[in-house]
Amino acid sequence: MRLAAHGQQRLLCTLLIPTPAPTMTNANDHSPHHSDAASQRSSSTSTESQRLRINAGWIITMDQQLRVLEQHSLVVDNGLIIDCLPWATAEQRYSDMAAEDHRTAILMPGLINAHTHLPMSLLRGFADDKPLQDWLQNHIWPAEAAHMSTEFVRDGTRLALAESLLAGVTTVNDMYFFPNVTASVCHEVGMRATIGLIVIDFPTAWASSVDEYFNRGLALHDSWRDDKLIQTAFAPHAPYTVSKDPLERIAMLSAELSIPVHMHVHETAHEVEQFKQQHGVRPLQRLDDIGLLNADLIAVHLTQLTHREIERLAETGVHAIHCPESNLKLASGFCPMAELLDAGVTVAIGTDGAASNNDLDLLAELRTASFLSKALSAQATRLPALQALRLITIDAAKALGLNQQIGSLETGKSADCIVIEPDFGMIPIYNPAAQVVYTNSSQCVTDVWVAGRRLVANRQLQTLNAQAIRDSTQRWRNQIAS
Question: Using CA atoms, how far apart are residues 462 and 249, in angstroms rounded to an integer?
Answer without folding.
Answer: 41
